[in-house]
Structure formats: structure tokens, C-alpha cells
Amino acid sequence: MIWVLFWVFLVVIRGVHGGNVTYDGRSLIIGGSRKILFSGSIHYTRSTPEMWPSLIAKAKRGGLDVIQTEVFWNVHEPVQGQYNFRGRYDLVGFLKEIKAQGMYACLRIGPFIEAEWSYGGLPIWLRDVPRIVFRSDNEPFKFYMQNHTTMIVNLMKAEGLYASQGGPIILSQIENEYRNVENAFHSKGPPYVRWAANMAVGQQTGVPWIMCKQDDAPDPVINTCNGRNCGETFAGPNSPSKPSLWTENWTMRYQVYGVEPRIRSAEDIAFAVALFIAKKGSYVNYYMYHGGTNFGRSASSYVTTSYYDQAPLDEYGMVRQPTWGHLKELHAAIKLCSETLLWGTPSNFSLGQLQEAHIFRRQSGECVAFLSNSDRRNSATVTFRNLSYELPPRSISILPDCKCVIFNTAKVSTQITQRLATSRQMFNLSERWLNFMDGIPKFRENTIKANALLNQINIAKDASDYLWYICSYNHTPADVQPILHVETQAHAIHAFINNKFVGSAHGSYGLPSFTFESPISLNAGENNISLLSVSVGLPDSGAFLESRVLGLRNVRIQGTTHGSQDLTNYSWGYQVGLMGEELQIYRDQGSRLVEWKSIDVGSTHQPLMWYKTTFDAPAGNEPVTLNLGSMGKGEAWINGNSIGRYWVLFQTAKGIPSQTLYHVPRYFLIPSGNLLVIFEEIGGDPLQISINTICTPRVCSHVSESHPSSSVGPPRVQLRCPPGRTITTVDFASFGTPLGDCRNYSMGSCHSTKSLAVAEKACLGKKSCSISLSTSKFGGDPCPGASKALLVDATCN
Fold first, then answer.
1. How far apart are CA 306 and CA 87, in angstroms?
2. Is residue 356 among the annotated active site residues?
3. 260 assigned to active site
């Protein structure tokens, strides 16, 4: 018995402190034990070091075991041979925080990562390597890819961060969704896959390597699934000796400017996870669990600054209910069954046309069942083991003993929260602002010249979103109104003739080019044509990224004495970026290098305008945002830190800006005298800008007798306020048959008149409260024979 206890002790210790991670056809094996693991993507670059402990802690409380992150090559090596692992880029510090909180990590090295990150994470200097072809059986690319991979692996080893060293990293990823582009490389694709796998395995990390969406991943690399419904779409591992892993369960669709957000419900996410586990899945990662913020110019083409705000942890790191809570309950239900799921014999059979039972049985008698209804519209009543079960549309019930339901994916009992932005400081006094108009370059002032329209990526080298194309045009007046015609593969353009603004135009996500046309006034003789080409992020996906083109492709003036004058092959001058960028006037020292002026009514709504002011940090610890709803398009800085691009004028089909609130991490703030600098491309009104704080004052919960928890006790409404707040009002309470849900409710035909009094007694003045769905609690049954529910909506202050 002593030896048995000693062996168990060793296994536990090994599981805590690491050991080589292996796998079999059922799951990853850590410390000698099979594991069902829930993971969440949190990117260190899209949050701040002060946020990391809270984000990781909330993920752990939500039932996660693993934090997954990409590694962002272009921020770590922005200049060849010069490395940056400081501040938000402190990958080692982030992983050590994961370890400190007792969680595992999955490190997706890539080095191509996509991730809606500019250039898919590849450094721009790679384009200048002679004869390079990215992500192909190409010696120059493989040389630099191996160098970077080895550098990251050696850094992890030096810090003892692999599980084989007692660290948190249990998985590493090489490449990313290469199967999407593999055929484009023809004979150069498959050898690259084999080389990448061998190169990675040769790093000898002591943990498995994975390739996502790569059904030809060579052994021993594990092929994994990405998508919304891998339980339905994944063909499975390409070897019976590999486990079924889901590396990206998309919690929403990332948002791009001008496109409506595609929100995914907690119920739909939970159904997909339960189905994947029911089909022998053993690892599920939520992409994203916390999306965060695309600070600076880090977002890829047209992607908004706010990233995956609808994830279980929102952009600011606050718990988003009901998604976070509903998934937490799902994780707990599955973990309760994990031994039987991992060691039981699976089987499945039909319960109806769109209904199915997935069963796991052990020889010792334990039994777990997942009863699924794939019908998206209709509920179904099924019979399983001589018992009847009601399955809502597109739902799965989990039965840990093949008898009692403890969780149904479509029945949400966790509270729902609603976010509120409160204005804390307005900048509506003109005397608070100073402005500075950036310069419009002339042809003679530029040293870069070419008799062609050059590729913006090659010239700007990602040093700026902006590239000026300037030419001098000699005009002979004609009777026809001249029209400037520009065809461009940039994302936006602003046109100036002789320093006067002519107009702007922009493209949209998914379209490779657009055309700008505008009537113009030309002087007889020489005219200066200045065209500001704008990039809103570099592309992040597809084959042959090294050959991508941005910028102007064709320029002509219609209505000349010759009919149409093609300027495409004229002599063009080029200027990378803006004067204000070069001088860094968004920093305190740089701002002293230019002459700022007081603003008046006539100096707002002007293009190419810089604005600056100062403000004090709002009291408390609630998240801070900058409301830029009155502005057009540009970028904003706080104390020299870019909080990202804004593009308020690019609205969705419903006439709604894609984003108006921009996250200002408290990590960027000092108590007073914070410097706010904004560059406005098109023209906006800074007097309407405000500093806001974000909170979740509304909490609501809705449970019914049919909720699975009724099989193990009465279901309960549970409400919890954000930290530092208490329940001050109960806005609605109904025990009976309330209609709708927390998103939209009303009183039903059956209602206990004591509902409000009971809820107020239980909740007012408290940080949290719990009310059981019990007739005795409400002084009797208001409608005998009817299935009853309880809905309570309250406000926290």
C-alpha cells in the first residue's frame, strides 16, 4: 500500500511540474495521465502586462486548463537581427504568469500566424531577401524560418518553459492553416510541409508539435481542426495513433470596417464543443477567449482596432455573460465525466432523424451519454434507456450516469450582463485643444523619384500607413471640366491639387481595388498633384505574400486638350509617411518641435490635422475608452502609445460606425496630465470627443423547472455584480411563466405577485444573491400544473 501511495504521489508531482508530454489515439498524455483539456486564446500583444494576471485568472475560473497564444515574429524582430521582448511583447513574462497560475500553455510559433495580424506576423524585411518565396520549399525562406523558430525554442528552453523542463508549454505549433494555400505552390508545397515538420520535431522540445488544418501533417506532428463546428466538419486525425484536437473554435467572426459583426451565441458555441467531445475530441481551444485590442498599426487589412470583443472575456478583459458562465458550466459537466470519456468504449446510435446518442461505457459499469438534436428549428422528444428526454433545437444533453441530465447546451442559467459606457470627461472647450496641419509635399521637394507608380509596400516598408505620390503636371486649359481619375489597390486615398483638398475615397474588405474620380480645378501651366495613398493594415493570408501590391496603379486626367492625359508613367515623387510621424509629435518631446495653434470653428473638420490636449485619468479601476464618434479616420495616441487606428466614417449597411469606443489601457495612463494626440485624415470634430469608463451595471438571470439542474436540486437564479458594486434596484422579477428571456422579456399569463418582494429581499444591497425556483419561496404555486420559470433583472451601482 505504501508503494501504491508513493507511485500516486510521483504521478501527481509529475503532473504539476511537467514531464515529457506524449499522446495516444485518445488524448494528450501529461504526467502519465490522459487529459481532456479546455483552452483559450489570449494574445499577449493585444493586451498589456497589467492585464495578464486578471485575464489568466478569469480563464482559469471559467474552467480552462490551457492558454494558447501565437508568437508574433514581426514585433519581436522588426529589424533583422534586432529583437524586442519588452512590455506588451514580453512573451516569457506572459508564459511565466500562466505557469504561476497553474495552467498549461500552447505556443503557436508559426512563424506565419495569420491571426488578423499585419502581414500574418512575418517581418517586412523578409521581402528584401533575394529570391525569397514565403511558405514554400524555398531555401531563403526556410533559412530565416528555421532561424526564428530555433531562436524562440531556445529562448523557451533557457527559461525552462517547456513541460519537459517543468514549465507550462505542452504543445507547439509549426506553420498555420497551410493546407489553404498548399496547392498554389504546386510541387513546392508538400516538400515544405515535410521539411517544416521535421525541422520542428528536430528542435527536441519534449512536447508534441501540431499543424492546424493540415490533413497531410507528417508523423509525429498532429493535424488539428480550425472552424466553428469541428464536430461536424473535422475528418479526424490522419493516424489512429493521434488524438482529435480543435485548435480554433471561433467564438465570433473578427470584425472589419464597414461590415456588420457576426455574433455567435453561447448556446451555439456550447453545442459545437459538446458534439466534438461526444465524437472523441479531447482538446478544445476557443479562438478567441480574450481578443483584446489591435494597438498601433498591428491589425491586418480593414480589421477593426477592437478584436473579438464578443469573446468570453471582452476587449477590456471583463467577463461577458452569458458566454463565459455557460461555457464554465459546460466544462464542469464534461470534466465530471472525463475518466469515463477517456477510458470508456465509445458507441453511437440514432434516436430519430436528426437525433443521436453518443455513449461511453467502462467495463466497471460507468456510463456517460450525450443526447444530441441537430434540428435547428424543432425540439425533439427522444427515448433513451426507457426514459423520455426533451431536447431543444440544436442542443446536446449531457448525462454523466446515462440517466440524469446535468447540462443542456441550449439552456442558459448563468446571468446575462449588459455593458454601459459612462462619460467621465468631455473635451468640448476649444481652448483645451491645439492643432497642427501636416504638410502637403510638392514634387520638387522629394528625393525618391521614378517614372512609374511604385508598390507602396516596397517603398513604405510598413514604416507608415501613408505614402505620398506627387507629380508636377503642366496644364493647357480646355473647354471641358478636367476630372482626376485614379485606380488604386490601396485602402483609401486623399487627393490634393495645388495644396487644396479635392476629395477622398476608400475601398472595402475583400475587394482588391477601387477607383477615385473627382472634378478638379487646374491652373494654366504647372500644377502640383499630391495623392496620399493609405493602407489600413497589410494582408495576412493567402499565397505569395512577398508579391503583394498596394498603392496607385493608374492615374489620368480626363478633359484635357488631348482628351485624356495618362500620368501613370510620368515622373513621380514619393514621400513615406507624414511630417508629424517623422517628428513623433504624438510624444511629449516631439510635440515641441512644431508650432501648435489654438483651434477655432474654422479649423475643425479639416483634413491632415493633428490635435492635442491633456486630461486626468478617471478615478477607480473601470476600463477606460476614448469616444471618437465625432471623428473621421486616423490614429490616436495616449502618452506616446498608439491605441490604434479609428475609422468612424466607414459605416455598416445599417449606417452604424464599425467602432466608436477605443480602449485606453490604464497601463498607458498616469494620474494627471495625460497627453492625447490625434491625427485626423479626413476631418472631424474633436470638441465632441470624450473619455468614458465601462461597466456592467445590469445583471439578469432566467431559469426554469426544465433546466437540467432540476434533476439534482431546484434551479436557482444567481446574480453577481462587478467588483465594487452592489445591487441597488430590482427592475423586473417574475415567478410563473415570464415571456422571452433576459435579452427581451415581459410578464406572462402566470405571475406570482410576491415576485418583486422576494427578489428585493434576497438581493438589494448585496454584491450577489441566489433565489431558488421553489413555490414555497413565493408563498405558493401561482398556476398549478404549469411549468414555471423565474426571471430577475437588476441594476448594480
1. 20
2. no
3. no
**Beta partners for residue 770, in sequence order:** 718
Task: Say what percent of the chain tops pLDDT 70.
Answer: 97
Using one digit for the tens of pLDDT, what is the confidence trace for 623-639?
999 999 999 999 999 99
Amino acid at the residue 736: G
Of the residues 248, 581, 622, 635, only one is catalytic, namely 248
Global pTM reads 0.94
Which residue reads 467588483 in cell numbers? 723
Are 335 and 325 a contacting pair, CB within 8 Å?
no
d(C-alpha 66, C-alpha 619), whole Å: 34
What is the number of helices (H) and of strands (E) in the chain? Answer: 14, 46
Backbone angles phi and psi of 414, in degrees to 5: -70, 155
| Per-residue pLDDT reduced to its tens digit, 11-54 | 333 333 346 899 999 999 999 999 999 999 999 999 999 999 99
Contacts of 320 (CB under 8 A, 6+ apart): 310, 311, 312, 313, 314, 417
Is residue 397 within 8 Å of residue 708, measured between CB atoms?
Answer: yes
Q: How far, in whole angstroms, is CA 458 from its chain's centroid?
A: 28
Instruction: List the catalytic residue out of 177, 182, 315, 581.
Output: 177
Weakly modelled stretches of the chain, pLDDT under 70: 1-19, 601-603, 709-713
CA 513 to chain centre: 26
**Cα(54)–Cα(317) distance, integer angstroms:** 8
**Residue 65 CA neighbour count, 13 Å, CB half:** 19
What confidence tens digit (pLDDT) does each residue in 427-454 have? 999 999 999 999 999 998 878 999 999 9
